[in-house]
Amino acid sequence: MFELATGPKRKLLDAALHVIRAQGYAGSSVDDICRQAGVTKGSFFHHFKSKDELAVAATEHWSGVTGNLFASAPFRSIADPRERVLAYIDLRAALIEANRELPDFTCLLGTMVQETFETHPDIREACNQSILAHAHTVARDLVEAKRVHAPDASWEPLDVALFMQAAIQGAFILAKAQHDPAAATRAIAHLRNYVASLLAGDAPAVKPGKPATTRRR
Predict the structure, then answer these.
(1) In angstroms, what is the C-alpha Rg of the chain?
(2) Is the pTM for the entire model greater than 0.85?
(3) Cα gap 164→169, rounded to integer Å
(4) Helix (H) or strand (E) segment spanning residue 124
(5) pLDDT digits (tens, 9 = 90+) for 35-64
(6) Is the pLDDT of residue 216 over 50?
(7) Which of 55, 71, 90, 116 has the least C-beta neighbours within 10 A?
(8) How far apart are alpha carbons 131 and 163 in whole angstroms?
């Protein structure tokens, strides 16, 4: 489990997760983050030299918060590694259902890196390292699942784990574009069915649901 910051620093980091996902990195000011956190700008600059430094710290905080969530989730106790991988994907869909507001279920890393990959290399690399670290945790289950259920398959577990992250990030983009969380859950249902097919088991397919016919406003 990751040890998280406490006190005003924790409030600032938590606020950054919310504000940046809601407004984007460029659209989020130090004032916005302090207002959300309920702390003064003096407190902000006591902990961080700049918004960029906060952003890098926020990627680490995001990895800690989400890492603890996944590490303690019930799917970790599933014995069959194939079912464990599929239950991880189910959890990703469930988190969308439980947090229907777009900023509450989308990813800080994907949001920031799309804006900063050319202009802020330190933020880009922090996002990259966090995405890779999470993919490696997923890949460990895929290694075991492949050994048990698809030992002759040619795919590499880490490649599939990174593809899963790419598909989930793409699902978030669709949800934003359509202003509809269901767009993300439909995409993740297709991802689940694809991963299940790679592992050649007999788990029932998940019905993706009907595409939206009208835009949410």
Answers:
(1) 18
(2) yes
(3) 9
(4) helix 121-149
(5) 999 999 999 999 999 999 999 999 999 999
(6) no
(7) 71
(8) 11
Model confidence band, residue 125 (pLDDT cutoffs 50, 70, 90): very high
Find tokens 């699902």 and name the residue: 171
**72 burial type by CB count under 10 A (0-12 exposed, 13-18 middle, 19+ buried):** exposed
Please tell me which residue, 215 or 210, carries the higher pLDDT value: 210
Detail the DSSP E strand segments found in 19-167.
none
Give the integer Cα–Cα distance in Å for 80 and 57: 36
Residues 6+ apart with CB under 8 A from 197: none
Q: How many CA atoms lie within 13 A of 213 on its CB side?
A: 1
Instruction: Please give the Cα distance from 123 to 94 (Å, whole number).
Output: 29
pLDDT tens per residue, range 143-184? 999 999 999 999 999 999 999 999 999 999 999 999 999 999
d(CA 139, CA 133): 10
List, for residues 95-123, the tens digit of each pLDDT value: 999 987 888 899 999 999 999 999 999 99
CA distance 5 to 16: 13
Sign of the CA dihedral 143, 128, 170, 100? Answer: positive
Q: Which candidate, 54, 62, 89, places its Cα nearest to that of 2? A: 62
The rounded distance, in Å, linking the Cα atoms of 138 and 132 is: 10
Write down the number of H helices and E strands in the chain. Answer: 10, 0
Please report how many Cα atoms fall inside a 13 Å half-sphere around the Cα of residue 101, on the Cβ side: 6
172 token code pair? 């978030």
